[in-house]
Amino acid sequence: MTEAIVRERADVIAGLAVHWQALDQKLAEYLGTEARSKVERAFRLGATAHHGQTRKSGEPYITHPLAVAGILADMRLDADGLCAAILHDTLEDTPVSHAELAEQFGADVAELVDGVTKLDKVKFRSRQEANAESFRKMMLAMARDLRVILIKLADRLHNMRTLDAMSDESRRRIALETLEIYAPIAQRLGMNAIKAELQRYGFAAYHPLRHRVLEDRLRQLYGNRREGVEKIQHTIAAKLDHEGIPARLVSRVKSPYSIYTKMKTEHKTLAQVLDVYGVRVVVRETMQCYMALGAVHSLFKPVDGRFRDFIAMPKANGYQSLHTVLFGPGGTPIEVQIRTEDMDLLAERGIAAHWAYKSDGSAGNNAQSRAREWVAGLVDAQARADSSIEFVEHVKVDLFPDEVYLFTPKGDILALPRNATALDFAYAVHTHVGDHAVAARVDKKLVPLRTRLSSGQSVEVITAASAQPQIGWLEFVVSSKARTAIRHALKQIQHEESIEIGHRLLDRALEGLGTSIEQIPAPLLDAFLQEHRLRRLEDLLAEIALGNRMPQQVAHALARDAATLDLGTASRGQDKILISGAERGVVSFGNCCHPLPGDDIVGYLSAGKGIVVHQAECPNIPEFRKNPDRFVGIAWDREISGDFKVALKVVVDNKPGVLATVAAAIAECQSNIDTVEYQERDLRTAAMLFVIEVKHRKHLAEVLRRLRRLAVVHAVSRYVG
């Protein structure tokens, strides 16, 4: 290194000395000399690496990492975490390498920095995909070390504090991401102080006018009630002192964002949600929480149904407290929270309280252990998700703050998102239980899987070995674990069905050439798979079933390579493939003609869809004949299962109430209506097109007979369009 470079680096460090000194004063409160020296070395490397870079505000860039480290120092984060905070942008924005960080500061620091680093150097199709992949990577790094998310939250918090320097578009985008992802993560990890600040800045940036209106209204309201608020607080303090309960009282006023979300979710006006006054009572021991509760209830009458015991049943993020709402003087609602000092610290700092970061250790507070359980679930979810965007959507579901608490038959407590169903509960118990669930007993009463659950209920899941996930389950489950597991299982079922159908299609095509899959030498089959970039035979069969490869073309290629092609003795493979209606993963039914069991049918291989079944008389068949190699010989199996759609044209009197009459008649025949629309109308009659679900032609005949008996129906017939 030349003398000039050394001198330049020294000048850079000297110019930033005031920023370092402010951080070092915080570190001196809890770190030893050696640890502080390591953090200072990180500062020197970061200052040099970021030299010449500035923020949008014009400040030297290194002031941002130092501010992030300052936020973390307030949490008493360890030296490695602080080094990573100072260096968190070096891999992304400077020539500093991962190896260099590991060499100078150790593998822990290098991995932490890598976990926080975004993937901006990788090309993605959209900003949404890039952000989603960055988020996925960060969450997986968080599974290895919880300090990753602490650094990211501190990074986001300082960015929000300095958001004014950004453009309007960037400000709104970052604010929305903060409200949807980072503030809920902070809440999920029990870090309510960070959550509140992120929400305050996010709301102000995303809805500046609404924020200003609410803030002014709250300031005015609190100013008018200040005297009454102080009187209530003094009354509670005097009562606790009289009962011999040492306590610290803190007054609380709801934030503009919490008021705004309550107005939206509960569809209330501003005047209806302005019960903004609250008081927090902080005592020394858990038993004193319940004693304090009795004391305040003797002062003011409690509001019925507003008491919550989060001490006996902590929230999923480890939060513990007693919540009650009282009728104050003049009927003013008073929200009271009662907790111990340790619970209060945990409520504010969450996983950052009594810090223990090792992901595989047993040490740490309740929030840390629960956070690790949550992160372990995220790792499982991302392994099953099809894309990073889908993974982020799953995480958002689990970040909803409202939860229900449920009991297993053994008395264990499970926390699930609001509106969770019995099926969500089944998947929360175990993926295998969910996959084979058929019903549930809620408080010993038999209920269907789609039943919504309420806190305090006891739930027992009933399973059957033959049961398997259904596509309709995705319409009512709310937890990300259930949604991910169902999609994964359906994909697996579809893949297995694809392999079976593909095998039958290829066998049939090879039989037509006088050979079979068993007669194709293994080396030739492997060479064919390698040439077409397929990992195994099952992948080829699935491609055939989905219509992405033609079975005849594959058969010709394999038979030609094997030199077994013998058209003179070929049987032409006239056996038809039998379908039962259960192969919905790779077999679908044409919406143009809606074939039913018993109809003469043909199959057509459509790319990406597999075999599409049509009536032999479907008006689209002439068009399909332009690609004869895509036709598949199929027939109905003896055993048929499932419901099949069919279109009916119903001519009725054109008068009020007719639609309800026809719909009721269809429902009486145990048939569901999929869609209905008017085709033609005049003064006397109207023609309606119904698409309904039936099990077979006999079921359809029952529906037709029932409709023809209606006085308002002039004619009804099956419709093929």
Question: What keyword list fits this structure?
Answer:
single chain; 721 residues; alpha+beta; Hypothetical protein af1432; Beta Polymerase, domain 2; Ubiquitin-like (UB roll); four-stranded mixed beta sheet; 27 helices; 20 strands; 49% helix
Please give a quick description of this structure.
The protein is 49% helix and 16% strand. By secondary structure, it is α+β, with helices and mostly antiparallel strands. The protein folds into five domains: 3-207, Hypothetical protein af1432 (Orthogonal Bundle), CATH 1.10.3210; 209-352, Beta Polymerase, domain 2; 415-478, Roll (Ubiquitin-like (UB roll)), CATH 3.10.20; 488-636, no CATH class; 644-718, Alpha-Beta Plaits.
Tell me what the structure shows.
Helix content is 49%, strand content 16%. With 721 residues, it is of the alpha+beta class. A hairpin with a 3-residue loop joins strand 13 and strand 14. It is globular.
